[in-house]
Amino acid sequence: MTIPKKALIVDDEAHIRMFVKMVLKEVGIEEFLEAGSSKEGIEVYKQEKPDVIFMDVNMPGIDGIDALDQLMEHDPDAFVIMLTSVSTRESVEKAILRGASQYIRKDTPKEEMIKILKDTFDPQEEPAES
Length: 130
Description:
By secondary structure, the chain is of the alpha/beta class. The chain has a single domain (6-121), classed as Response regulator (Rossmann fold, 3-Layer(aba) Sandwich), CATH 3.40.50.2300. Helices cover 44% and strands 18% of the residues. The protein has 5 helices and 5 strands. It has helices at residues 14-27, 38-48, 64-74, 89-97, 110-121, and strands at 6-10, 31-35, 52-56, 80-84, 102-105. A 5-stranded parallel sheet has the order 2-1-3-4-5, sandwiched between helices. Helix 1 (14-27) crosses helix 5 (110-121). The radius of gyration is 14 Å and the shape is globular.
């Protein structure tokens, strides 16, 4: 996958959505959609079909893992990256087994997050020669 053009950020905390958007701009993503709940995120995805979804795991109502299940049921090719404050091996494995493409902790330093995302979107990309 090349760098996506349109991303959906689903998180119940506005400051997290703002931080993720800032990181994604540095990765090269140009268009952003936001949702403050899993339910809203699923609806926005169905209407807008963004290239990538960033989904918080822990949200009130429908949590991110259940929302991931619903997204995968609707579109098995959806490209979902899970975001979390707390990650255990079990939760990471569960998300990947259910269809997530990547799992990133929210406290990952910005530069490291950018590298993870660039590697996720274009793992074959060679470093540019200077």
